[in-house]
Amino acid sequence: MATYTYDVFMTLDGYGAGDVEGYWGKQGPELLAHRALQYEADQLMVFGARTYREMAAILAEWSDPDLWVARMCAHPLVVPSKTLNPADVNAVWPDTSVVAEDAVELVTRLKAESSVPLRSHGSVAMNRSLMAAGLVDVLQVTVFPMITGRIGAAPVFRQFADFDLELIESHVLDGRSIELRYRPTPL
Length: 187
Hints:
Structural class: alpha/beta
């Protein structure tokens, strides 16, 4: 059975976005190289429709994406959506399939059928339901050293179920950002 990793970026106070530049201005060479290594091996990406639309908009304007983003985009992508038009998706991410199927049902099926690991970056709402269904094997959180109490948007774990997290790996990147890899267990 394939593993599923939910990969998410956030500030120390738990926000996934805000009125600041990408990576909250905290990217550095170690972070970017570490991210690129994570996308060297074959894997199948799974994004929710909202994240796909946001990534497509960013990629359409980005003439030279970071190496890790370029590598991520080289992997096939599956988007569970009943609203996204399949004809509109391949311009930005060439190997994309839109599947009009519930995310929990789709990921359950993909975990059983895939010969490569599954990975999602962002897609908070979709991954909330996948974690609640017990389908997330690894929760990978990259914490950027910012507190964005006033400007923060998109709280990453708002409305998630309760989980115990077993730390399986950690990395300090560029002396300031921390990547934490956990095995989640519902409480």
